């Protein structure tokens, strides 16, 4: 496990880790406290912002890793452990994203319950935001890692925001039960995670042989 973490640290700059591990979670929780008022109602906005921020920030992490001539991959070709390092980095990245979502929405949910005394529901106000934001951030970076342009990350992030809005409206005003939406996003979270790791590994391995 120590080697996996060390590999992850090699791929991530200190600035990136500070942003995604500390600054973004603190900013979103602070946003929740500042804008919620007595009703604790900023949760939906945070649900829109988190996947957008994750997708945009990924440009400085593994942006372009799935390109044919991915930058900074050549040195891995000299090591028999190169592919294992990449796999570990990908898995740890998605684990970190999930934990970030759980932490941010978990804190907001507890604040709603005990600070704002809002009538928050675990399914709609905790599980759904976690699964939705994680699924969309994984899908977004799966798409954007085929290139290294920041504006494409931003564009995909905006599309993820629109999708979040649509599903939130469906949950709030539609007739589909929250448990059904949660089940769908749970399946999508697993499928997207597996695909994201598999596709990235295939593309990187193909780069080893100039495919």
Number of helical stretches of at least 4 residues = 7
Which spans of ≥5 residues are poorly predicted at pLDDT below 50?
none
Cα gyration radius (Å): 18 Å
H/E series, N to C?
Answer: HHHHHHH
Q: What kind of sheet is the major sheet?
A: none
SSE-based structural type: mainly alpha
- Strand percent estimate: under 5%
Overall geometric form: globular
How many distinct beta strands? 0
**In which range does the helix fraction lie?**
over 70%
In whole angstroms, the N-to-C terminal distance is 31 Å
Mean pLDDT: 84
Protein model, in words:
The protein has 211 residues and is mainly α. Helix content is 75%, strand content 0%. It is globular. The model has no long low-confidence stretch (mean pLDDT 84).
List keywords for this structure.
mainly alpha; single chain; globular
Short recap of the structure:
The protein has 211 residues and is mainly α.
Per-chain topology:
Layout: H1 2-11, H2 14-36, H3 43-57, H4 82-114, H5 122-144, H6 150-173, H7 178-208
Helix pairs in contact: 1-4, 2-3, 2-4, 3-4, 3-5, 3-6, 4-5, 4-7, 5-6, 5-7
């Amino acid at each position: 496990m120590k080697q996996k973490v060390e590999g992850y640290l090699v791929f991530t700059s200190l600035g990136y880790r500070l942003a995604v591990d500390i600054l973004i979670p603190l900013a979103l929780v602070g946003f929740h406290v500042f804008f919620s008022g007595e009703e604790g109602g900023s949760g939906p906005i945070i649900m829109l912002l988190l996947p957008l921020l994750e997708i945009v920030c990924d440009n400085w992490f593994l942006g372009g890793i799935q390109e044919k001539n991915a930058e900074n991959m050549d040195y891995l070709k000299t090591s028999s452990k190169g592919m294992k390092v990449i796999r570990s980095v990908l898995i740890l990245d998605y684990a970190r994203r999930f934990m970030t979502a759980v932490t941010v929405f978990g804190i907001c949910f507890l604040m709603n319950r005990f600070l704002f005394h809002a009538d928050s529901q675990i399914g709609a106000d905790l599980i759904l935001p976690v699964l939705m934001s994680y699924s969309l951030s994984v899908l977004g970076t799966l798409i954007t890692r085929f290139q290294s342009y920041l504006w494409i990350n931003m564009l995909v992030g905006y599309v993820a925001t629109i999708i979040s809005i649509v599903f939130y409206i469906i949950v709030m005003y539609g007739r589909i039960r929250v448990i059904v939406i949660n089940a769908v996003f749970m399946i999508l979270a697993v499928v997207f995670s597996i695909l994201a790791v598999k596709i990235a590994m295939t593309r990187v391995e193909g780069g080893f042989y100039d495919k």
